[in-house]
């Protein structure tokens, strides 16, 4: 099963075997930066237990990674990640469930482009056109109050008037804005900057995975080291206030500092936190998106996901713990932390810096977000590419350029995310709606792929595995698939009342897409090469050794989602 580096020329339309596990590790090094997307949102929703949410979530991710590492080893010639490897397990049981896995994984990963660009663009706008800051003792405020026309006015009124007058007009500019169902959209200055960042990301990846990995290595070092410093220095310097971890109860109401209780409403908020944390904390599984680009997939696959997971375990434990210990609940509830715009400044304060240090931290925040954006485009574009190669998605996505980059899939990612970017740039509510809908897809993908582990064991147990996970971890992963389903059913509503249903509708969009490819483009048959790694033919797909168990699994998962949605209310 081991595949060595290609010694001859690469055939047209194929990805290039040019990296080892270290390259995949650096491409996936953008995942730790995802904690900065929702660290404020989870704290504002859950309250004091938020730091434990991150610890538990990333631990779940490590356990689940064992299943993904095993099934990835079955397919040394495929790219696109765990969703592609798991889809083949479901193929025997339903033509429509299999592509659902690939589609939902892409729905989960691709919005990182738009969400990350919206935050990074907001930072850049703050640097280029900052909102002026005044205090009660500022000379401008005192002069304003001294004017006869403002007699009797308060300092707060003076600050508001001066801030409005001195705020750069570009911050209120928009080419077009409006509403779309439960969300708003705006083509404002942040949107324009975000589009430029997307194009920069495209240019980096146009030269293939080796070039992307090399760029990610340098950006990754520039980001991971400061995140470690921010996670460790406050602990060593005694800045942690241990009272900030008590009382250990969820909030009574999201974004309100009053403590609640461990009742139905409290658990609903906690499950909402676990639901949205999964989007970030499980995401290092993207390190196995590059199996067909590994020089030695049998060795590199498990190492890539293991070391990426350990890095995430460290940073997802340290950073939320330190943020909460230093800022406290009141600080974490700050709007600038919730929307991400104040995270860079908060990181500078944690290491005792101001002025120049703050500027450096903001620059590093932008780099961290670019790191995550690069990771997302690399992974999600390869999911589209492999989905097209294997017959799930339209054929045009299977094209690669002379550098081995799936450029048509990358363009599809970029164009799709232009619309998502306009929504993410509108307001925080719209931002988290996109995040919640995206994560519904991610939970569906996780459910299908964690159960694909034992289905592959039953149907394809005869195939050699370069790395075989302990059976107990396959079983625990199966159990976690239902835990994740509960998080989705109970927790999606915390972020938006329509998030769960919008997520299910978005997932169902694969049906017409797959029908077009399979029945119109391919005449009802899959490409002959799709099953080569398993050594079986399409006739072999009629043999279903697992019997009705996969169908019972799907039914039980749906029941868990619906029951959890009914029981857990805010």
UniProtKB/TrEMBL annotation:
Topological relation to the membrane, as annotated: Multi-pass membrane protein
UniProt-listed InterPro entries: AA/rel_permease1, APC_superfamily
Regions that span the bilayer: 24-45, 51-75, 96-125, 185-206, 218-240, 260-284, 305-327, 347-373, 430-450, 471-492, 498-516, 548-568
Keywords assigned: Cell membrane, Membrane, Transmembrane, Transmembrane helix
Pfam families for this protein: AA_permease_2
Keyword Calcium attributed: no
MF term (GO), any: transmembrane transporter activity
The keyword Transmembrane appears for this protein: yes
Subcellular location: Cell membrane
Major localization class: membrane
Name under which the protein is recorded: Amino acid transporter
Organism: Aquamicrobium lusatiense
């Amino acid at each position: 099963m081991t595949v060595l580096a290609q010694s001859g020329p690469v055939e047209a339309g194929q990805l290039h075997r040019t990296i080892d596990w270290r390259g995949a590790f650096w491409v996936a090094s953008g995942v730790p930066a995802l904690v900065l997307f929702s660290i404020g949102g989870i704290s504002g929703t859950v309250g004091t237990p938020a730091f434990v949410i991150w610890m538990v979530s990333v631990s779940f991710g490590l356990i689940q990674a064992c299943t993904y590492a095993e099934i990835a080893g079955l397919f040394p010639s495929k790219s696109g990640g765990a969703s592609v490897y798991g889809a083949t397990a479901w193929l025997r049981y339903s033509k429509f469930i299999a592509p659902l896995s690939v589609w939902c994984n892409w729905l989960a990963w691709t919005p990182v482009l738009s969400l990350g660009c919206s935050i990074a663009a907001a930072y850049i706008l703050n640097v280029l056109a900052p909102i002026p800051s005044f205090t009660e003792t500022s000379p401008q405020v005192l002069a304003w109050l001294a004017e006869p026309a403002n007699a009797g006015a308060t300092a707060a009124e003076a600050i508001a008037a001066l801030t409005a007058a001195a705020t750069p007009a570009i911050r209120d500019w928009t080419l077009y804005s409006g509403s779309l169902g439960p969300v708003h959209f705006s083509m404002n200055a942040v949107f324009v900057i975000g589009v430029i960042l997307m194009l920069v990301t495209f240019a980096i990846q146009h030269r293939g995975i080796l070039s992307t990995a090399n760029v990610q290595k340098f950006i990754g070092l520039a980001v991971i080291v400061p995140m470690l410093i921010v996670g460790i220095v406050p602990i060593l310097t005694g800045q942690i206030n241990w009272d900030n971890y008590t009382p250990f109860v969820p909030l009574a109401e999201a974004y309100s500092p009053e403590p609640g209780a461990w009742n139905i409403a409290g658990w609903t908020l906690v499950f909402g936190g676990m639901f949205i944390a999964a989007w970030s904390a499980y995401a290092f599984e993207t390190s196995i998106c590059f199996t067909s680009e590994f020089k030695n997939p049998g060795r590199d696959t498990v190492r890539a996901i293991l070391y990426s997971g350990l890095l995430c375990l460290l940073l997802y434990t340290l950073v939320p713990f330190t943020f909460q210990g230093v800022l406290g609940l009141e600080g974490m509830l700050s709007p600038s932390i919730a929307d991400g715009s104040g995270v860079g400044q908060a990181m500078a304060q944690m290491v005792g810096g101001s002025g120049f240090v703050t500027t450096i931290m903001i620059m590093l925040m932008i780099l961290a977000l670019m790191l995550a954006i690069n990771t997302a485009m690399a992974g999600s574009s390869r999911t589209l590419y492999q989905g097209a190669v294997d017959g799930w998605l339209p054929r045009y996505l299977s094209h690669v350029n002379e550098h081995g980059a799936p450029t048509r899939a990358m363009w599809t990612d970029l164009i799709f995310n232009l619309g998502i970017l306009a929504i993410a740039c509108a307001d925080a509510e719209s931002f988290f709606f996109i995040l919640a809908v995206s994560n519904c897809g991610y939970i569906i993908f996780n459910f299908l792929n964690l159960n694909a582990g034992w289905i592959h064991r039953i149907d394809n147990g005869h195939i050699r595995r370069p790395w075989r996970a302990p059976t107990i971890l396959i079983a625990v992963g199966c159990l976690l698939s239902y835990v994740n389903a509960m998080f989705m059913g109970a927790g999606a509503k915390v972020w938006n009342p329509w998030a769960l249903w919008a997520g299910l509708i978005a997932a169902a969009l694969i049906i017409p897409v797959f029908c077009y490819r399979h029945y119109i483009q391919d005449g009802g048959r899959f490409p002959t090469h799709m099953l080569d790694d398993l050594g079986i033919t399409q006739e072999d797909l009629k043999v279903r050794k697992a019997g009705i168990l996969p169908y019972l699994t799907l039914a039980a998962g749906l029941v868990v989602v619906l029951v959890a949605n009914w029981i857990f209310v805010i």
